């Protein structure tokens, strides 16, 4: 076992250094002074250089060749699988390119944030063009003659392809569009929440809700950021949220969403920490946790009744009279610009737009300077509304500034997985609604931890869902859930 022990010791140190690099990224988006951006770019590039050198260290290949998988248990073989995948992918990317990507994406965050605030896409376009050029170069190295977009997608959802995602979207789009048309044309329309909601009270309530959904604040913290996110793994998992004085749901549900991510990381078996298995297995599975927390649990009639009581206690006067009306308000359907604020029906249409555009960008079929027009035309076609400004359109998301091409489709894949998990959860916990109405999510979150979260990356993504639910993933549970929920809510 010496070779295996040596390999795992080396990987543990690499994982620890990667966690340090992640903390630099967290700091950049929450607390770093604006004037430090250029230096932080150099720091991130230096860290990536060190990490890349470790990921392609020839000793990894030697250890892998010397280890007999038959002598290992399931955990050992899974570690070898993940280590080999990382080693083979990293070995295809030149160190100079890896450092250049780290530097460019670090610097791009500040450029994007400034351009977004100024509604200035032209100010961001050159930076985006540079990132796309670097990612294309990386994709070409990784693809080895295959599809470049698939090579990038592999970073976020191993074992799937752009063609498979496109087929899934083709199956979902007609039913989502039909449901949207019926709901928006319904006579019954829930009222919107109005009023002014102080930031401090929003943060206090969101912190309470985060803990109600199992977020361990002794191993985490909540800060503000332009774009909410979760960062870290194991014993240090941090989340961010944002506030809008006229829309407390933005803060509350962004927090619940990120708590889903964070509790997945906190829930991984401590024995896997700082190993290749010590984090979520894929972004699709990760999104299944954030989406089931936010939607099937957090926007359920049962939990929204509990939240209604807590909102009244925190904010006193609400323009919504009772818990049932509040449930309608929480799930109010409208054609909005912002993906992270989208209702459950329209959310996946937002993702489909981004998926098609980024595939075209990576393929070279869409030029960066033509991106706003392509975005605006597609948005108006899908949502029937003209985009009024870049921050409501092409500049709203940070992902492309961060170089995360291939990430967006995992949001919808996560919704599909969440539909499957919710169906299984309902079978396993028949009194789920009674517990959620009391503000108690422990049975639901405990089931998810037991059947999915604790295993980290022990199984491949698809097998992770199959193990938790007992069935192959399918779009049917999600679509059936949406059609039943919104037909009942809107009196269809």
UniProtKB/TrEMBL annotation:
Q: Which GO terms describe its biological process?
A: proteolysis
Any coiled-coil regions, as ranges: none
Q: State the reactions this protein catalyses.
A: Release of a C-terminal amino acid with broad specificity, except for -Pro
Q: Please share the entry's free-text remark on the cofactor.
A: Binds 1 zinc ion per subunit.
Its required cofactor(s), as named, are: Zn(2+)
Q: Give the matching SUPFAM superfamilies.
A: Metalloproteases ('zincins'), catalytic domain
Q: Tell me the active site.
A: 258
> Which is an annotated Pfam family here?
Peptidase_M32
| Record-listed Zn(2+) binding positions | 257, 261, 287
Q: Which UniProt keywords apply?
A: Carboxypeptidase, Hydrolase, Metal-binding, Metalloprotease, Protease, Zinc
PROSITE patterns in the cross-refs: PEPTIDASE_M32 (PS52034)
Which EC number(s) are documented for this chain?
3.4.17.19
Q: Which GO terms describe its molecular function?
A: metal ion binding; metallocarboxypeptidase activity
Q: What class of enzyme is it?
A: hydrolase
Tell me which CDD domains the record gives: M32_Taq (cd06460)
Q: Which InterPro entries match?
A: Peptidase_M32_Taq (IPR001333)
Q: Which family does it belong to?
A: Belongs to the peptidase M32 family.
Known function: Broad specificity carboxypetidase that releases amino acids sequentially from the C-terminus, including neutral, aromatic, polar and basic residues.
- What protein name does the entry list? Metal-dependent carboxypeptidase
What is the organism field in this record? Candidatus Rhodobacter oscarellae
């Amino acid at each position: 076992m010496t070779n295996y022990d040596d390999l795992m010791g080396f990987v543990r140190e690499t994982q620890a250094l990667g966690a340090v690099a992640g903390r630099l990224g967290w700091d950049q988006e929450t607390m770093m002074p604006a004037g430090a951006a250029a230096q932080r770019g150099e720091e991130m590039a230096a860290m990536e250089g060190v990490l890349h050198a470790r990921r392609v260290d020839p000793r990894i290949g030697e250890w892998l060749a010397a280890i007999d998988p038959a002598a290992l248990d399931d955990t050992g073989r899974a570690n070898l699988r993940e280590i080999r995948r990382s080693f083979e992918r990293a070995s295809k990317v030149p160190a100079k390119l890896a450092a250049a990507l780290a530097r460019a994406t670090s610097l791009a965050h500040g450029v994007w944030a400034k351009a977004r605030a100024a509604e200035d896409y032209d100010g961001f376009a050159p930076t985006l063009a540079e990132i796309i050029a670097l990612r294309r170069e990386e994709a070409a190295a990784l693809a080895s003659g295959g599809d470049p977009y698939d090579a990038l997608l592999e970073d976020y959802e191993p074992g799937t392809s752009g063609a498979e995602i496109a087929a899934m979207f083709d199956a979902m789009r007609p039913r989502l569009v039909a449901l949207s048309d019926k709901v928006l044309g319904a006579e019954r329309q829930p009222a919107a929440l109005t009023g002014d909601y102080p930031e401090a009270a929003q943060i206090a309530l969101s912190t309470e809700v985060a803990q109600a959904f199992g977020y361990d604040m002794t191993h985490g913290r909540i800060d503000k950021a332009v774009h909410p996110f979760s960062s870290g793994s194991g014993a240090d998992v941090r989340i961010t949220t944002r506030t809008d004085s006229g829309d407390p749901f933005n803060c509350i549900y962004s927090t619940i969403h990120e708590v889903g991510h964070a509790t997945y990381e906190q829930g991984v078996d401590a024995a896997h920490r700082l190993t290749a298995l010590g984090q979520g297995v894929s972004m699709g599975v990760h999104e299944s946790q954030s989406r089931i927390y936010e939607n099937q649990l957090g926007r359920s009639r049962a939990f929204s009744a509990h939240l209604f009581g807590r909102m009244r206690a925190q904010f006193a006067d609400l323009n919504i009279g009772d818990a049932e009306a509040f449930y309608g308000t929480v799930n109010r359907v409208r054609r909005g610009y912002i993906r992270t604020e989208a209702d459950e029906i329209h959310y996946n249409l937002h993702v489909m737009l981004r998926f098609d555009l980024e595939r075209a960008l990576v393929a070279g079929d869409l030029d960066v300077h033509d991106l706003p027009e392509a975005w605006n035309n597609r948005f108006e076609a899908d949502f029937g509304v003209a985009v009024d400004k870049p921050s409501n359109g092409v500049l709203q998301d940070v992902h492309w500034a961060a170089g995360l091409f291939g990430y967006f489709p995992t949001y919808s894949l996560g919704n599909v997985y969440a539909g499957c998990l919710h169906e299984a959860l309902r079978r396993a916990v028949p009194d789920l609604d009674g517990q959620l109405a009391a503000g108690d999510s422990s049975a639901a979150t405990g089931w998810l931890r037991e059947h999915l979260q604790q295993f980290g990356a022990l199984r491949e993504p698809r097998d992770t869902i199959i193990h938790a639910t007992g069935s192959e993933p399918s779009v049917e549970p999600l679509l059936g859930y949406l059609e039943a929920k919104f037909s009942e809510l809107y009196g269809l």
